[in-house]
Amino acid sequence: MAPTRRTTRTRPTGARTGRAAPRTRLAALAAAVALTALTGCGAADMTRQASPYADAKGSRTVTLSVQSWVGAQANVAVAQYLLEHELGYRVDTVQIDEVPAWDALSQGRVDALLEDWGHPEQEKRYVDDKKTIKPGGELGVTGHIGWFVPTYFAEQHPDVTDWKNLNKYANDFRTAESGSKGQLLDGSPSYVTNDKALVKNLGLDYQVVFAGSEAAQITQIKQFAKEKKPFLSYWYKPQWLFEKVPMTEVKLPAHEEGCDADAQKVACAYPHTPLRKFLNARFADGGGDAAAFLKKFRWTTEMQNDVSLMIAEEKLAPQEAAARWVKANEATWRAWLPS
């Protein structure tokens, strides 16, 4: 998302479509996992700072915005590896949340954003009106946010996959954090999420509980699965965790165009969103081979998940994971290089 991350809104403190009091209990673990997942170069949160390599005219440097979920980190890792090893660029990466990343991109503090889950307000402001950002094409991956239960629970209780039956199972999903209500586990409050409105507008006896980050949410889901406990979670595709913890989606009311336009009245499912890339306008026009390469960068969900698994499960450094993927997939990435 988080992940996730797609609508015109973000939730307080920053939704994967981006995207918390309960998160303190897992803060240390989440921080450690997040630190491992980030690249070693320029990984600090520079939302209010400028990378020394961004918008550097006449130099072979590129600055990429990297979001907190591992799929986005996989995109950046492979793009960085190829820019450095095949095209001879110096690459810096900057960790920024979803909406601030648009501001940084517009101002030239970063050159490219490789996985956007849909921010129409920012797109209108910066692409249509100010023309400081240009579309960079589709990533090749379609994103979808939804509510999921573990498949082992869905097989025992098939009707749980219809939202109309969720209240029947609220007691099964209760936790200490959700009190007398069932728990709907969300990740980072910076991800795109309509969940509080959905719970209210669908009349569900649930409490949205934020884990605090994708890493912390994954830790909780894995623990539930290890103990074969039932859980209901906001989650998203593509995401490597489905290969480790099979989950089944709960069917929410069908998504229709405009059904999520009013943040307070949302009562429909999340859409399926082709994920897209965006470039700073000056970089898009004058970024030479690097800009041309990033516009051509396009891979599949399976490819992204391959790299994500190496980073998150095998604990490889992102550039090690990228190197392994690049070695095995030359026929794919050669097509991305400028002629």
Describe the protein.
With about 350 residues, the chain is an alpha/beta fold. The protein is about 35% helix and about 20% strand. It has 12 helices and 9 strands. It has helices spanning about 25-35, 70-85, 100-105, 120-130, 150-155, 195-200, 215-225, 280-285, 290-295, 300-310, 320-330, 330-335, and strands at about 60-65, 90-95, 110-115, 135-150, 180-185, 205-210, 230-235, 245-250, 270-280. Strands 1, 2, 3, 4, 5, 6, 7, 8 and 9 form a 9-stranded mixed sheet that branches. Helix 6 (about 195-200) links the parallel strand 5 (about 180-185) and strand 6 (about 205-210). The radius of gyration is 20 Å and the shape is globular. Mean pLDDT is about 85; it is low at about 1-50.
